[in-house]
Amino acid sequence: MDTIAKRLEAIRSELLPGVSLVAVSKTKPVEMIQEAYEAGQRVFGENRAQEMAAKFSALPTDIEWHMIGHLQTNKVKYIAPFVSLIHSVDSESLLEAIQKEAQKNNRVISCLIQVYIATEESKHGFLPEQVLPLLEAPSRNRFPNVAIQGLMGMASFTEDDQLIRREFSGLSKLYREVKASSGLPLPILSMGMSGDYRIAMEEGSNMVRIGSSIFGSRS
Ligand SMILES: *Cc1c(COP(=O)(O)O)cnc(C)c1O
C-alpha cells in the first residue's frame, strides 16, 4: 500500500489549476493527520464537532479545520473558536446558531451554503431556489458574524457518471448565477469526493474534499 504522502502527491498532480484540496480525515487517528501534515497538507475536513475539537487540540495550530458534515445547532459551540470553514450550512437555524457562537467568540466564521442536488433523500441542504434569498442583504444583515464564501454540494452515491455530471453541472450553473445576481465575491464552489472529484473539477469545482483516496477506506 502506498504511503499517505504518495497518495497525496498523486491526487495533487491531478488537481486542475485553481482547485484546492481538503483532506478528509474523519474517523482517522491524529497520527495519520500528522503524516499528511508532514507531507505539506494544511487543510483537513471532519464531520463531527467533538472529534474535530479533540484533533484541533492535539495537532499543529497552522492547520485549517473544515467542517464538512451535517452539524447540529447545539454542537456549533465546540468548533466556533477555531473552525476555518463550515461547508455544510443546511438550514437557517444552523446559520442562527453559527451567528450566535461566532459573536460570542468575537469572530467572523466563513461558511458555504450546502445545496441539495442529489436524488437521494439522505442528503441535506437548501433547495436551489432558496440560495439567492439567503445571500441578499436583509438576510445577510441578520448574520453579521457569518461570511458566506460560496456553495457546496454532494452528488448522488451512484455508478451513473452521467447523473453525477448533471448534478454537478446544475450546481455549477447555480453558483455562477448567484455570484452574478448577488454581487458577492463567493470564491468557493466545493464539490467532489474520492469517487467523483474528476467529474466535479470538469464541471467547475474549485475545492475537492477527499478522504478514502488519501487515508484508505473507513470501517
Ligand atoms: C466523508 C465525506 C467526504 C470524503 O469522502 P471520500 O469518499 O472518503 O473521499 C467528502 N465530503 C463529505 C461531505 C463527506 O462526508
Task: Using brief descriptors, characterize the structure shown.
TIM Barrel, 10 helices, 8 strands, globular, 8-stranded parallel sheet, alpha/beta, 42% helix, binds pyridoxal-5'-phosphate, 219 residues
Unique bound compounds: pyridoxal-5'-phosphate
Extended strand count: 8
Which class do the helix and strand fractions yield?
alpha/beta
> What integer is the average pLDDT?
96
* CATH fold topology: TIM Barrel
Low-confidence sequence ranges: none
| Estimated radius of gyration | 17 Å
Widest β-sheet, arrangement of strands = 7-6-5-4-3-2-1-8
Plain-language structure description:
The chain has one domain (4-215): TIM Barrel (Alpha-Beta Barrel), CATH 3.20.20. The chain has 10 helices and 8 strands. The chain has helices spanning 4-14, 30-38, 49-58, 76-79, 92-104, 128-135, 137-140, 161-182, 197-202, 212-215; strands at 20-24, 43-46, 64-67, 85-89, 109-115, 146-153, 188-190, 207-210. It has an 8-stranded parallel sheet. Helix 3 links the parallel strand 2 (43-46) and strand 3 (64-67). It is globular and about 50 Å long. The relative contact order is 0.15. Pyridoxal-5'-phosphate binds next to strand 8 and helix 10.
